[in-house]
Design brief:
By secondary structure, the chain is mainly α. It has 2 domains: about 350 residues, no CATH class; about 120 residues, no CATH class. The protein contains 24 helices and 4 strands. A two-stranded antiparallel sheet has the order 1-2. It has a two-stranded antiparallel sheet with strand order 3-4. β3 and β4 form a beta hairpin. The longest helix is centred in the N-terminal third of the chain and has 34 residues. The protein is globular and about 65 Å long. The N and C termini lie far apart (about 60 Å). The mean pLDDT is about 85.
Amino acid sequence: MNTSIPRTLFVRKDIDGFFGLMTDNLMQLIVIGALCQSVCGMDASRVLGTILPGAAISIVMGNLFYAWQARRLARQEGRDDVTALPYGINTPSLFAFVFFIILPVRMETGSAELAWKVGLLACLGSGILELAGAFVAEYVRKHTPRVALLSALSGIAITFIAMDFALRIFSRPLIAFLPLAIILAEYFGRLRFPLGLPGGLVALGTGTLLAWGLQPFGFNYMDPGEVKNAFIHFQVHFPHASGYALWDVLRTDYAWKYISIIFPMGIINVIGSLQNIESAEAAGDRFPTMPSLAVNGIGSIAAALFGSCFPTTIYIGHPGWKALGARWGYSILNAIFIGFICVSGLVNLIFAVVPIEAGAAIVLWIGIVITAQAFQTTPTKHAPAAAFGLFPAVAAYAVMVMETALREAGKSWEAVGLDTFTAHGFHIYGMICLERGFIITSMILSATVASIIEKKFIRATIWTVIAALLSFIGIIHSFAINGRGIVTIIGIDAAPMFSLGYCIMGITFFAAHFLQKHGGRERR
């Protein structure tokens, strides 16, 4: 083993890498604050005093580990160009957990406290799956078409990530279009800014300056009172254990209610992290898979145990940081800065000073890239499978919009009645059935179509049998309407029509296999 290694912990290019990774992480914190408070109705004290300090634990721990890992690899191989794996809060899980777990619990029960506790359980479950996935990731990846995983992810990206922030941008074009142009120019046009400033930082800065600069002209985008309150109520919040909250929710029926969201998101996180490790290897840095994935899962578990609802993950983009010249110091700097921001109380000030529209373009770009990935990194012939997998997410987004509209109008699904919609030609039953367990449904539909495209009809049959079993026990497609809204019905024979329908599909594909094998003529 060559023990030659640079003596310094930092190189100049680590500063560039730090600004890029820090901007991404900071944007996640802003989004968490905005969604948890304005959408899910949580108190600022819960977000600033518990969730963000809990997130700090996982972010600091992970960044320091991956920095140590990179330095260790550099020592083993005797080179000074190793770049640490980027790490931070998982963006798709953030939105999935907010819109499909935390918000529904808040709407169903009216309790933001219970919604937070269920979010903790979701984060813990995701972390356990990620940790277990360190040992089985290769097997899952081998037997699940990539398009199935990416299509499910892109469905969330194009609706709950990209669409929501696109609407924010077009709601306030005066302050949002300039940051949008900057992000598009750098991320898609590869434009380099003076002094090597990252586009995300420039976008946040210009958007913030515009929002405050337009105040004298009657555009009241910002509230100086919020800034004053941030200074008045400045308080340091150290992480504290939240095991009691997890124990409380484990004793309720919520312990298994959202498994159809938690399980596929955990699998997606594992596969995504594995792909990012492979991406790093392609760029020249070969990190061991098992410990890299294990720490990824441990970070999410630690976040849940200390009050954060949001898993952390290995980020995409290692080759970009490597090309930039960052090594392992940028990861250390990110751990220090984000950890300090989360516990110091300065996040509250950032919420008050930086408008969400200033960073909306960054999240929009993330959503676009994730969606495009389903089509760009899979075989071209699998594009129909990727497109087919988008429908469940579109249905889920539509259901969420309709639920919000009904709630604001003082109505409920039960009071209005689904037949009111069907009487006007709107297929509301199909939309809600497609929405229930939509991430799993998306994966199954995409995998089935991909298998058919590959003429692997037996594999397509297996996927439809899986769908039949899941619908039979209510994991997908099963629902009922009551005073609490739309609820999933878990139990035997929960969605019999879907179970039977999938069985019919499976028989058809099984017959297609024999038709293809014994004299069937292939369509040209």
